[in-house]
């Protein structure tokens, strides 16, 4: 039976902020609530069995006909707002779709009047301006209470002139701000050789796919059709035409001052660039992104790149029926979730990630490798291995044979090692040898993607030239894809699960990297999941798989840190605000997915018999669940870019709690308390 992706938001399950509560809050070991008694533990065992059974059945019921799983992937208000902008840029309006997106945007307005980057977060000026602007385009009366409240919040925060560079590019395309409000981005950047300090290949995959079409837009400076004539002048505290200083040094470092100076020089000399050179650069940018259009899955399989590609092709005069333009528009429409009365636009989709993680959870819960759900899922994953295309990663590894899996349905130029490691572990876990060839290719590819410092980035090797984050365009601080502890841990987990040990130089260098990355308090930073709980879970699993001594001091510091973060209700929660170092201890209450990560990490460290793990299992067994089997979890427990772009994987509350509860059950019943798998 095919289950359509869910839409809308869960009901408000919020709790007070960490600073306004004593429970659940952050509790040291001694403050964790009453530990279950022996009698309670017997009842808990029965309850866990029931919960696992029910949640597993719900997961199996939503498996797609071809064997995969896909859950909604939710970001903040900016993506649905930008969908509305694109329609009005093109004058290709979709009143029904836009009404649903507007309804969603209204539903996530926070009490402070603006819009946050994650559930119950602080107001973000850029997200708030885009949300207000989209609602006004959709027809909301600016004197309606929610619009007045939003406008007041935006003006009190400094007005629309305080938005980030990406928002100002959108406003420049609509004529709200002059083009001097954004950094100069000469399309000639496409012609820079690899040895040049600033070139496309030094940017991350997501930056390359977004920037290539944006360079064309920044050069041609087209204007949106804007059929309703909507403007948002009321959101500025000063006339944009009179504002002299738009750009800041995003890092405060000397390199930032250099790039600000370079921007001033480019504004003077750019008009004199030879036309023949400019056309060559435009052609190069166009060739770059059309080669990577990626069919119905879209450029880079991410919304911002897709939208920029459509606008660039329009600016270049593509006819409406041009196949590239038609399929690029279709790829964007596929990101809108279906729904009744409310829908949102996803930044991308996550079927490979969802399917591989679900397979792990189901196998932990007792599904056999030959059982239909696992066999069908693995066969679906096998069909998505990338074996023919040498993607952008090959720029730094030209002799490495292709393999790997992307995050989305198709994104052959951009497989990532995180997905590849998780898929590889799932295929290897079936243990019948059917998928050995794919697993072996994945092993070789992951080994070949190791960076020089021993860690792994997500998509590229040594994509870590930090000075590039000082250019004015990079005020989001996410232009690069450097190695991170969570991705590196996953790669080590995979390689260790298939038999590599500490005598292997790849494993040794990876472990040295992880040890160097440990925080002073014992935790590890989580780049792609929120946050230190995610990173610490990932690393503890890798250390166990690689055969590290889990009683060693550095491991036990991580164990102690996790216990110190356990809430009084037995669960764990960590807020998106923790990516601000001054707020790294915040949480707004326990979540199912973060509790599962903490449990899995602690069990990897041999802690299954600690009564605090039973308390965590009790929390998961009793936490509210939806009719579709998922645990209630309105919180965003993942990130696209820390402090800039956050994500809520709707599947995390479906498969991670099952995984943790099943492992707890299995280890308690086993004579061997060691976790046998990489995750």
Describe the structure concisely.
The protein is mostly helical. The chain has helices at 38-61, 78-90, 95-107, 125-137, 145-156, 165-173, 205-220, 254-269, 275-291, 303-315, 323-333, 351-364, 372-382, 417-429, 436-448, 485-497, 505-517, 532-545, 553-564, 592-604, 611-622, 652-669, and strands spanning 73-74, 638-641, 645-649.
Task: Describe the structure in your own words.
It is a single chain. The chain is mostly helical and 679 residues long. The chain folds into two domains: 46-73 and 351-472 and 483-669, Glycosyltransferase, CATH 1.50.10.20; 76-333, Glycosyltransferase (Alpha/alpha barrel), CATH 1.50.10.20. It contains 22 helices and three strands. The protein has a three-stranded antiparallel sheet with strand order 1-3-2, with no helix packed on it. The protein is globular, with a radius of gyration of 25 Å. The model is unreliable at 1-30 (pLDDT under 50).
